Amino acid sequence: MPSDPDSLKVIIDNIYELIASEQYDEAEHLLGCIPDLEKHDPELLFFKAICEYEAGRDVECLQLLSDFLNRAPRHVKADYSVFTAAICLANLGMEEESLPLLNTLPVSYPDLIDEKQSISAKVQIKAQAKVHAEAIAKMSRKR
User: Fold this and answer.
1) Average pLDDT over residues 120-124
2) Do residues 51 and 19 touch, judged by C-beta distance below 8 A?
3) pLDDT tens for each residue of 54-92
4) CA distance to 38, 40, 46, per residue, from 20 (Å)
5) What DSSP letter does each residue of 86-126 carry, written as one string?
6) What is the CATH number of the domain that holds 103?
7) I need a surface site. Which of 37, 45, 55, 70 has the fewest CB within 10 A?
8) Based on the structure, what is the number of domains in the chain?
9) The domain containing residue 20 runs over which residues?
């Protein structure tokens, strides 16, 4: 892995192009060739997180997004990171934790309204199911 800034910029640009063309496996492979990824440009953490998300590894994605936002809270990709984290949480069945993240995003954020409605509906369904489950559990103890 070249350590000079120009070479790293070329690699970051290549990774960006791979992700933009939805070649996540190739991008992940290139990211894996960078030793001590977390010590370089924080955007590399973001790219790695997107690859993890696309591979369905939501917990790993959340960890990387957390690291990225910790290192670069005002990065141009911060809102994208928060949105992706919210979707990961929803994917993991943590809709109630997802909604507060979505509520931090600007209302103009793409797909925000649809995702908030979808996740809110799941929260309501879970709340209704919980009421029924509690009633059933109470009745089963009386048997």
Assistant:
1) 96
2) yes
3) 999 999 999 999 999 999 999 999 999 999 999 999 999
4) 21, 21, 13
5) HHHHHHTT-HHHHHHHHTTS-TTSTTHHHHHHHHHHHHHHH
6) 1.25.40.10
7) 70
8) 1
9) 5-141
